[in-house]
Amino acid sequence: MHKNDRTMIISGIGVTILALVLAFVMGSFEVAAPPAPPATPSEPSIVPSAPITQSGTSDENTEQVISVSLSNPVNVTVTLTWTDEPDGTGCPPPAARWVNQPDNFGLTIEGPGNATGSQEPVPNTHGQQGSVSLSVTVRINGTDWSTGDGEWSITVLCGACGDQTKWRPGVFGWVDSGNAWEMSIEYSGYDMAAEGNT
Ligand SMILES: [Ca+2]
Ligand SMILES: [Ca+2]
User: How far is the CA of 83 from the centre of ligand 2 (A)?
Assistant: First the structure.
């Protein structure tokens, strides 16, 4: 090899090394970023669900369990209403001599996620609709938004249901056996479908 050729090769290698050094210094070489940690699941939005209604009739001093399936609930409110019969209903006339004593109703709720609550029976105001309401909140387990999903048990507590009694003390009463009620179950739940978590 001619001396000049060797010189040119050595010079070329030198220029290449210098270019690499300059490229490194100028940032042309990028060091690969460390892998990002797994993203924490974001909390899905909470949306109200259509109320669920139930109706029934209870005997005095009994409990009646209602089972319902709720979809990823967070807050659940159950409202029970009842209307006692007018004074004198089903009694010997004159109706005006009879007074229908109040009926007593309460509630218990038991669901997944330690969602429990109870409300002792309370009486309706004489001649008016009775109502009792109970709310519970699901204790979400970490980021398990479906903690409260599944079957819930709601118990109707029917307490003392006052009879039709005569206005005059000491006179026999007339059994009030009409203990019908209406139930509304309202809740808000995680919108899992919108988050693509189904
Ligand atoms: Ca009644
Ligand atoms: Ca009554």
Answer: 9
Task: Concatenate the DSSP letters of all residues of 84-104 into one string.
Answer: PPPTTTTSSSPGGGEEEPPEE
Q: Identify whether 61 is part of a domain.
A: yes
User: Domain total for the chain?
Assistant: 1
pLDDT value of residue 48 = 96
- Check residue 156 and give its pLDDT: 98
**23 CA distance to ligand 1 centroid (A)?**
91
Position 2 in a domain: no
Q: How far is CA 116 from the centre of its chain?
A: 11
Share of the chain above pLDDT 90, in %: 61
* Residue 176 alpha carbon to ligand 1 centre in Å: 5
pLDDT of amino acid 33: 80
Ligand 2 centroid, distance to 179 Cα (angstroms):
8
SS3 145: coil
d(CA 127, ligand 1 centre) in Å: 10
pTM value is 0.76
